[in-house]
Known about the structure:
- The protein has four helices and eleven strands; from the N terminus they run αβββααβαβββββββ.
- It has helices at residues 2-13, 106-114, 128-148, 186-202, and strands spanning 23-29, 52-60, 69-80, 154-157, 222-229, 236-244, 253-260, 268-273, 275-279, 282-288, 295-301.
Amino acid sequence: xxxxxxxxxxxxxxxxxxxxxxxxxxxxxxxxxxxxxxxxxxxxxxxxxxxxxxxxxxxxxxxxxxxxxxxxxxxxxxxxxxxxxxxxxxxxxxxxxxxxxxxxxxxxxxxxxxxxxxxxxxxxxxxxxxxxxxxxxxxxxxxxxxxxxxxxxxxxxxxxxxxxxxxxxxxxxxxxxxxxxxxxxxxxxxxxxxxxxxxxxxxxxxxxxxxxxxxxxxxxxxxxxxxxxxxxxxxxxxxxxxxxxxxxxxxxxxxxxxxxxxxxxxxxxxxxxxxxxxxxxxxxxxxxxxxxxxxxxxxxxxxxxxxxxxx
Length: 311
């Protein structure tokens, strides 16, 4: 009988799920917040160093301590959702016609395949499918340019200190260097695909966006978007969220700092705010800049294993 009791106890716990005692932090960042510059192109005015990040801190103002205590909750970066200058802004994954092709060359590849160099005057041999493919490729390139522009969509992403392998001097460069974007032959595409995917596998936080599905990057994690508008379809975008291990109750203040990857934390204070609880179970923080009109909003669902909010 003792053995039966043990078996019953074990069976009763099959499928038990350990609760998560941390918090869900939802962040709305105003469009004025600065993005990191591309590590592969020319920085635009107001952009931050490409080797930098932001950190959200919780602040405990303990009167028994000489100063406030800061607890880092989440590091993140802000990027245009696509970076045409990146050597790994490529087509990858299922159902792409040219795996490993740099996206900047997509219209050229379709033109070579269809023989259409002028969409307004296609050759007589071009089929209707060829003409649709070429028109679609041209529209894609226009979308990519709009998404990557200073006024395009910006993503709140995972933070990383990794770098890609060097870019080869030409299309037949060393096997451990990424072919330049202009190299479009199958062997160059295959080598680019292999090296880029190896870099993403080695560091799952290294962000590389995609124009195909904005919230499914090629590498890294997309936590959400900076508030703004998608220039392709004019739809509003915005809102990011993180799950953190801390149960964020009784926190005196929150702040967002901008920090260089190689520098000591914290860095430059960007936004600061004190929490209120206008809704049962939800902590709200209105963050403001001490030097500009920049704002952000935090909504915190604390102690998720004791959630007071019914959905």
